[in-house]
Amino acid sequence: MAKFKIVTPAGAGYGAPGYALEMEALGPLGAEIVEVEAKTEDDFVKTARDADALYAKGRRITKPIVDGLERCRVIALGTVGVDSVDVAAATARGIPVTNVPDTFIEEVADHTMTLILATFRRLVVQDRLVREGRWREGRPMLYELPRLMGQTLGFVAFGHVARAVAVRARPFGVHMLAYDPYIEELVMSQYGVEPVGLSELLQRSDIVSMHAPATPDAQHLLTEEHFRSMKRSAIFVNTGRGPTVDEPALIKALEEGWIAGAGLDVLEQEPPAPSNPLLRMDNVILTAHVASASARFDPARRRRVGQEIALVLRGRWPRSCVNPAVLPKTGLVRWQPYSMERGPGA
User: 339 lies in a domain?
Assistant: First the structure.
């Protein structure tokens, strides 16, 4: 009989089937991962009730599910975002919730820079003009645009991904601004980024790059009022989370010319409905929430999930906890020699 029971929804996740990567850390502890096929929350709770850990994927982990866990020591996510788990309910129960905030930083930063450049230079439209035999129309379009050097790039939130984008953007000669009430200004200064308020950032930026996490504070952080305040020549890029933007307001801004274009890896509804106007706009580049994807994506995140659960089952603090206030109350031992950055936007 296994020493520890780890419950997870059946049939969910990315990449290769099975749990060999997670079990690299969990196997030596005598743990087993049990898949649960359940159509309702009640059915799921019945099987998960005696779980030592919950591997959250493929379904929302709601308050009723969390409250039904009688001995769960940790809820682990293999994603950066934690909006699929009721973190408040877990916190009330004293259960740490972990994510993988530092696993895909470079990939997302690369994708962000790709969308910035492609949107700024109207790359998709230029490609289509060539394919449609409209070669001579390409150059006049770009005659209307400034060069990238000297433009202002504004970051809404300045976590690790935005900082990595700043490193990539700096050689292009852009001036950089950032708004993030949770980050010390001295951190921004180290990256050559000027700290400003949100209103000033939107008014001054030629490119606005959204990196806020999907937290209650960031829900619809950008609204119609904000898009109206931007330059008509500005472009908007989002590789963070869709719900941070009031999407109807963004659509209106693009349709009515309040802003010039957008590069979006995330949307409020994913995948988008066929009727979504964004799908028909020439001034929008869309990708399918793939910014984090690379050959290392699945192995790296799945190993990290196994490591986080194993740490807790061994009686230690996890490395990345999105509700760290619960840790001193859990009886888990803090083992890190230095303080760790934690939080949904870390």
Answer: no
* Domain assignment present for 307: yes
Which candidate in 122, 175, 241, 301 is catalytic? 241
The catalytically annotated residue of 59, 121, 289, 319 is 289
Of 270, 296, 334, 341, the catalytic one is: 270
- The residue range of the domain holding 27 is 4-103+295-329
Residue 289 annotated in active site: yes
Count the neighbouring beta carbons within 10 Å of the beta carbon of residue 61: 25
344 is a domain residue: no
- On whether the CB atoms of residues 332 and 312 are closer than 8 A, the answer is yes
DSSP calls for 33-63: EEEE--SSHHHHHHHHTT-SEEEE-SS-B-H
Q: How many Cβ atoms sit within 10 Å of the Cβ of residue 79?
A: 19
* Residue 69 and residue 181 in one domain: no
CATH number at residue 309: 3.40.50.720
Q: How many CB atoms lie within 10 A of CB 250?
A: 27
Residue 111 is among the residues annotated as catalytic for this protein: no
| Number of folded domains that form the chain | 2
Assess whether 185 and 41 both reside in one domain: no
Token code pair at residue 138: 């390409």
Q: Could you read off the pLDDT tens digit of each residue along the chain, which spans 346 residues? A: 679 999 999 876 555 678 999 999 999 999 999 999 888 889 899 989 999 999 999 899 999 999 999 999 999 999 988 889 999 999 999 999 999 988 889 999 999 999 999 999 999 999 999 999 999 999 999 999 999 999 999 999 999 999 999 999 999 999 999 999 999 999 999 999 999 999 999 999 999 999 998 888 899 999 999 999 999 999 999 999 999 999 999 999 999 999 999 999 999 999 999 999 999 999 999 999 999 999 998 999 999 999 999 999 999 999 999 999 999 999 999 987 655 554 443 4
Whether the full predicted model's pTM is greater than 0.85, yes or no, is: yes
| Pair (302, 251) in one structural domain | no
